[in-house]
Amino acid sequence: MFTDPLTELETRFHEAMVRAFGDELPDNATAAIAPSRNPKFGDFQANAAMALGKRLGKPPRDVATAIVDALEVDDIVDPPEIAGPGFINLRLKSAALHASLDSLDGDALGIEAPERRETVVVDLCGVNLAKQMHVGHIRASVIGDALARLYERLGHEVKRQNHFGDWGLPIGMVTHAVRRLSEAGQVDIPSLSLADLEAIYRDAQLTCAADHKGLAAVRRFGLGPKAEAELEEQVEGASAALAEAKSALVALQSGDEGFVSVWRQIADITLAACFENCRRLQVTVTEEHTAGESTYREELAEVVRDLEGRGIAEESDGALIVRLDAYGIKEPLLLRKSDGGFLYATTDVAAVRRRVQDMGGDRLVYAVDARQSLHFSQVFAASRKAGYTKHQDGSEAELFHAHFGTILGSDNKPFKTRSGDNVKLSDLLDEAIRRAELAVGEKNPSLAPDERQRVAEAVGIGAIKYADLSSDRIKDYVFDYDRVIAFEGNTGPYLQYALVRVLSIFRKAEDEFGITMESIADRGAFNIEAPEEKAMALQLLKYPGVVGSAAAAYEPHRLCGYLYELASAFSSFFDACPVLRASSEAARDARLRLCRLTGRVLRDGLSVLGIEPLERM
Ligand code: ARG
Question: How far is the CA of 344 from the centre of ligand 1 (A)?
Fold first, then answer.
């Protein structure tokens, strides 16, 4: 089983500290091992003695000596040296480093099957009926998909859920409007584009009346900007249209065939466009991952009855609410409005129940905008209160809102077109590919046009995705085409290019020496000598740990940062250490072996992020 030397040293140090200090050792004491600041002093330093000395009231150097005396690390490092106030300097033994690299270079790249295989349900994408995908949906799709891939890579069972917004009053509006236009012979539904539908939807919203009561309730209960915005949007219309839309919704909800058929066609058009965007984005969301809000319609009444029956929900001003004070949330969750209607939150409570109890979810992750934070904290707390997060064996599912910030334009305001409209996702991708094609053409004029087009697609899409994944998830970030498509810096193209360089070394190695990435595994033993080789080796060994911690923290940007450092280390190595022109065959083969492992990790890491690895660019 693979363990990187750093983790192993942490364990051995802790054991030594227990031996040296017994009961005196504070519970949270760690070896505090970090990479050495200066390679002259070794590869790592253990900084435990300073903090521990303070806690125990002993001189840190004495503490360091006591630890070193109790250490059993001969197989990993040279005899440790104590320096300065009590640093313990550690130099890896070559044999240990080489053995670790060998073990990492196995099939699994050091990522072993998990002790317990979890079912992880990832909520992603979340498009709405009759609406086009715009930049805002990139994050929900790309981050959600990367989280799904991280858990898949760790060996868990992942179920993606596209919580398609296809139910509720707005849906009644658009269905009613489309049906009317179709009956008047003004539109032919099957030939409508999603853009047409969106325009009809806008019009319908404008002509519909204001739900003042709903808005007041949302404000009174402080149900958050999402709910408020939804209602404010409709407060801007007139009242007869609203009544019609309401009766359309009732008809739809009671299964009226005419309405259902129109609704279904609108849903098909919306989803076809959504799936096409996801395909281009290389985000795994298809029909099988889509569970619209409408699929919960039967469960809603059941959930509400259950919560009411068990006294978990209570009446307030004719509405039904779930109080969450015990969970530190003062705003109750509104389960049913006084007019009997259910809400977005009702559906999400039913979704938690389904995802835990029917789908067996041990972990539910929601890649959804930060503006829905209150919504999810309410949904999670209400579901807990209801016991919907419990499995049959009594274990609790883990619920996490992987919320994210907004994509901003260069003016630091939400990214819009020049005329102030939302940027359509497909337009953004087209533009990225167009620019990538120019950049790729400049970088490598020898690519044939069709290959250039293919590469440009992978580079353009990869660049957009990487920009989204590499910035801290919870922060807003400023989007700039030139920066994200650059071949230098912490960008997708830079990482794709690092892999291309590795592969091109092997193309030459095969031409000149008949050595391939596969055959080198048998003939080239690791032999780390130069500092640049060592830096790269130590970086490689972190890979399994980084994948694990990126998943555990729901932070794909940790993996991005890691891969960027690896690519930079590779670049320094490549500048300093000749590979094919190394001083001996043995040295050449050892370096090729290191290149192979770097290539494998880069390829694996990119695919975990959902970014296409390229052979050439
Ligand atoms: N359709 C929702 C929206 O546009 C996003 C859905 C997120 N997922 C969820 N389970 N609520 O805001």
Answer: 8
Q: What one-character-per-residue DSSP string does 517-579 give?
A: TTTHHHH------SHHHHHHHHHHHTHHHHHHHHHHTT-HHHHHHHHHHHHHHHHHHHHHS-S
Residue 92 DSSP SS3: strand
* Closest ligand 1 atom number to CA of residue 372: 12
Q: Give the residue from 504, 514, 507, 502 showing the smallest Cα distance to 596.
A: 502
Q: Which residues is 158 bridged to in the sheet?
A: 120
The finding on whether 165 has its CB within 6 A of some atom of ligand 1 is yes
pLDDT on residue 617: 92
Judged by average pLDDT, the poorest of 15-24, 103-112, 333-342 is 333-342
Q: Do domains 5-92 and 119-165+281-401 have the same CATH topology?
A: no
Question: Which of 121, 122, 123, 135 has most ligand 1 atoms within 8 Å of its beta carbon, as the pocket-test mutant?
Answer: 123
Q: Is the pLDDT of residue 312 over 80?
A: yes
Minimum CA distance residue for ligand 1 atom 9: 163
pLDDT of residue 420: 87
355 lines ligand 1 (CB under 6 A): no
Check if 128 has its Cβ closer than 6 Å to any atom of ligand 1: yes
Best residue among 129, 163, 366, 403 to mutate for probing ligand 1, ranked by most atoms within 8 Å of CB:
163
Place of tokens 């890579």: 153
Query: Which fold is adopted by the domain 492-609?
Result: Isoleucyl-tRNA Synthetase; Domain 1 (1.10.730)
The pLDDT score that the predictor gives to residue 298 is 92
Ligand 1: which of 128, 169, 342 to mutate, most ligand atoms within 8 Å of CB?
128
State whether the beta carbon of 368 lies less than 6 angstroms from ligand 1: yes
Domain boundaries 119-165+281-401, CATH class: alpha beta
The CATH code of domain 5-92 reads 3.30.1360.70
128-163 pLDDT, tens digit per residue, is 999 999 988 999 999 999 999 999 999 999 999 999
Buried b (16+ CB within 10 A) or exposed e, 126-148: bbbbbbbbbbbbbbbbbbbbbbb
Average pLDDT value for residue range 366-390: 98
CA nearest to 610, candidates 203, 242, 150: 150
Under the banding of pLDDT at 50, 70 and 90, the label for residue 210 is low
Protein residue with least CA distance to atom 6, ligand 1 = 126
Give the residue, by CA position, lying nearest to ligand 1 atom 12.
126
The whole-number pLDDT of residue 214 equals 73
Q: What are the structural domain ranges in the chain?
A: 5-92, 119-165+281-401, 169-279, 425-485, 492-609
pLDDT digits (tens, 9 = 90+) for 426-442: 999 999 999 999 999 99
Nearest to 366 by CA among 166, 611, 136, 162: 162
